[in-house]
Design a protein that fits this description.
Largest sheet: 6 strands, parallel
Mean pLDDT: 94
Number of helices: 16
Number of strands: 12
Helix content: 40-55%
Order of helices and strands: HEEHHEEHEHEHHHEHEHEHEHEHEHHH
Distance between the termini: 28 Å
Strand content: 5-15%
């Protein structure tokens, strides 16, 4: 294959690898690929190392024909570099569209107190001076809006005074939606000793993902077993509108992926825009966004290595029982401070404006593409 042709293609391409999960990397048997693209093209791809074990690996095609490659978080860059050691890989951490994911009540607060935030999301760092009472009022309205939708969909009435944990995302098995239910008796004890707890779940499984669907079933089983001791609702027909209500209307965002499979994640970023701190495994974007007790709390003690189930379960329950829930009920001013810092530190950075700017500066302009 003419090297000038390869360079002409590379000059026009960058590649963002999005996941370490094998299902996210498309592979096709060589016979199928040959029938689609032809013998000549396949022969070139074989020579270029894009065909392994009689399988065309499209990730290797993208890596070879791109002039710039990046993962979607700093942690993912390191992981991807280990997966594909023959290619230089950078990182541009994902971000979310701030004006889409901020609840109406927080948009009104930001418009009044930080009027330039829509034009320049970096201005959200000035949230450090937002009156905590106004954050409380904006969050209370977001919570009321969520609970109204819960009642409309399920007929269940949740108490806005009760500490509410949210978990809403694609129902993939590695995201472990059922981790919080690992020990139902301990969860009951936490609710009894530290203060009442309720949980709001949402998310869909792929129609062909049987483990994902089984995960949802386990959440329903746990909800039935817990009953009124720890109320749990699972909202069906999950979409962007419902996702916005959940990530802005709960008090704590729970994220429990199995390390190191969370390339980035974005739901916690959406929550942070609304002053909702995270309790999350140290993987993906949370390695960068986590400051213990400042922007939220970690599950486990290190981003390195793979998940240890028992360690993470104990850490999650310990922090709920001894730190987070007691703070919510007995030190509300301290909890509001964490909420404010989540906006100022994470909302101001983990947004689409910053992300797109980094793509323009790092992936394009710096490489000579205007």
């Amino acid at each position: 294959l003419d090297e000038s042709v390869v360079e002409a293609v590379r000059a026009q391409c960058i590649f963002t690898t999005h996941t370490p999960v094998p299902a996210g990397h498309d592979k096709f048997h060589i016979d199928l690929a040959r029938s689609v693209v032809g013998e000549t093209a396949i022969a070139h791809l074989v020579d270029l190392g894009c065909v392994l074990d009689h399988t065309l690996n499209l990730t290797y095609v993208a890596l070879f024909f791109s002039r710039y490659v990046n993962g979607v978080s700093m942690r993912h860059e390191k992981l991807s570099s280990n997966m594909f050691p023959d290619y230089p890989i950078n990182s541009i951490t994902n971000g979310v569209h701030a004006t889409t994911w901020a609840a109406d009540s927080f948009q009104e607060l930001f418009d009044r107190r930080i009027p330039e935030w829509r034009r320049d999301n970096w201005n959200l760092r000035y949230a450090v001076s937002l009156p905590k009472a106004e954050i409380h009022d904006a969050h209370r309205q977001a919570k009321i809006d969520l609970f109204a939708e819960v009642e409309r969909r399920t007929g269940k009435q949740l108490d806005p005074r009760t500490f509410t944990i949210g978990f809403a995302r694609r129902a993939a098995s590695y995201k472990r939606a059922d981790l919080v239910f690992d020990d139902l008796d301990r969860l009951r004890r936490i609710a009894d000793r530290a203060g009442p707890i309720q949980l709001v779940f949402g998310g869909k499984a792929h129609p062909h993902d049987e483990p994902g669907k089984a995960l949802i079933q386990r959440v329903f089983e746990a909800a039935e077993a817990l009953g009124s001791d720890v109320p749990v609702v699972y909202l069906e027909d999950y979409d962007m509108a419902l996702g916005k209500l959940i990530c802005s209307g709960v008090d704590l965002w729970l994220n429990t992926p199995r390390k190191p499979q969370e390339a980035s994640g974005t739901s916690g970023m959406k929550a942070a825009l609304n002053g909702v701190p995270s309790l999350s495994v140290l993987d993906g974007w949370w390695v960068e966004g986590h400051v213990e007790g400042v922007t939220g709390w970690s599950i486990g003690y290190s981003w390195k290595g793979e998940s240890d189930h028992e360690t993470e379960v104990d850490s999650m329950y310990d922090k709920l029982e001894h730190v987070i829930v007691p703070m919510y009920y007995t030190r509300p001013e301290a909890f509001l401070l964490v909420m404010r810092q989540a906006i100022a530190l994470n909302g101001s950075f983990f947004n689409a404006q910053r992300m797109v700017t980094q793509y323009a500066e790092n992936a394009y302009r710096e490489r000579g593409i205007e």
